[in-house]
């Protein structure tokens, strides 16, 4: 198994859960993605008495992590437990959570009163029709192709000083550079330890940054890293350089490239944007996109959002979807009255 395959295998290693039946009738909203953003968006919609279905592939980005940190009142809670509670709460208000992988999503013919419709198709051939769509598919971390790196992802190989920094404080930490964003990454991890080594790994590091690193006691190594080295118990012990030298480290920090999960959503025609740390869907206020009837929330559009921020984005999107649905419902009711009593239209 290659390092990339190990990373992908780790990403889907999540506990199974009971799946609801897929609704046969047209629903008010379908949420693609059952993480913090998707579930919180669905919760808002369900509490607004909207019929909502969450389609969840069961592969959250933070699955390898032992706990979520920096989330008020839930700090230290395992990601799987937060999702379990979230699914229960969505269901408490009549929402459905369906286990499945979306392979296609696209606009469909509008209703007789002109309201929007979308069709979402799953890998097993089932499909569902919805009036509105919330995309909350999250993202994937694209790690450098360094042997041994992926197997420690989420444990000794980390990306976020706020998610994992306290747990690795005072450890010998190495920053494996992926580009200019790694310079700031180094300053953030230097806050957590006095023993920090920066591996340029073929990236540029200007003289000003080298001087600033030296002022903070950050060691710089320009020799490329060839592999991650483990100790006898399988724990991360260091990195091997191209010259054969092994630099002892207990933790490696990597500013991985962040890529929104877009597979299967091409039919929606959502615009994407390139950002300094990766690529994600473009969105505006409350997650609205330039495609009428489609919203985006969480890491699929905000690449650096933590769990709390993603959940909050889901709230905003869910509320905005409900607002737009109330307008559509009112328009349809008025149209129905006008068609039944033509004289009402003329006064």
Helix content: 25-40%
Over all CA atoms, what is the radius of gyration?
23 Å
Which overall shape is indicated by the principal axes computed on the Cα atoms? elongated
Q: What count of helical segments does DSSP give?
A: 8
Query: Strand content of the residues, in percent?
Result: 25-35%
What does this structure look like?
This protein is α/β, with parallel strands linked by helices and 347 residues long. 28% of the residues lie in helices and 25% in strands. It is built from 8 helices and 19 strands. The strands form 4 sheets. Strands 1, 2, 3, 4, 5, 6 and 19 form a 7-stranded mixed β-sheet that branches. Helix 3 links the parallel strand 2 and strand 3. Helix 2 runs parallel beside helix 7. The longest helix has 34 residues. The termini are far apart. The N terminus is likely disordered.
């Amino acid at each position: 198994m290659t390092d990339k395959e190990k990373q992908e295998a780790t990403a889907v290693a999540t506990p199974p859960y009971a799946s609801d039946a897929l609704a046969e009738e047209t629903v008010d909203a379908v949420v693609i993605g059952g993480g913090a953003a998707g579930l919180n968006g669905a919760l808002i919609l369900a509490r607004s008495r909207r019929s909502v279905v969450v389609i969840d592939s069961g592969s959250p980005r933070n699955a390898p992590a032992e706990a979520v940190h920096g989330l008020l009142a839930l700090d230290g809670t395992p990601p799987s437990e937060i999702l379990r509670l979230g699914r229960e709460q969505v269901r408490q208000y009549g929402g459905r959570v369906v286990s499945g992988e979306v392979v296609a999503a696209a606009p469909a013919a509008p209703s007789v009163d002109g309201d929007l419709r979308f069709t979402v198709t799953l890998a097993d051939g089932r499909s569902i029709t919805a009036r509105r769509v919330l995309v909350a598919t999250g993202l994937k971390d694209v790690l450098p192709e360094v042997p041994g790196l992926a197997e420690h992802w989420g444990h000794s190989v980390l990306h976020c000083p706020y998610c994992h920094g306290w747990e690795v404080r005072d450890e010998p930490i190495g920053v494996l550079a992926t580009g200019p964003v790694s310079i700031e990454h180094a300053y953030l991890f230097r806050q957590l330890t006095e023993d920090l080594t920066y591996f340029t790994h073929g990236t540029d590091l200007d003289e000003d940054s080298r001087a600033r690193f030296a002022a903070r006691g950050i060691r710089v190594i320009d020799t490329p890293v060839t592999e991650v080295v483990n100790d006898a118990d399988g724990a991360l012990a260091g990195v091997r350089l191209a010259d054969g030298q092994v630099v002892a480290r207990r933790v490696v920090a990597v500013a991985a490239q962040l890529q929104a999960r877009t597979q299967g959503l091409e039919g929606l025609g959502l615009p994407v944007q390139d950002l300094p740390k990766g690529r994600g869907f473009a969105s505006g206020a409350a997650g609205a996109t330039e495609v009428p009837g489609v919203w985006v929330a969480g890491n699929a559009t905000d690449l650096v959002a933590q769990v709390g921020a993603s959940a909050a984005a889901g709230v905003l999107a869910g509320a905005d979807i409900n607002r737009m649905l109330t307008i559509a419902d009112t328009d349809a009711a008025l149209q129905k009255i006008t068609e039944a009593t033509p004289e009402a239209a003329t006064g």
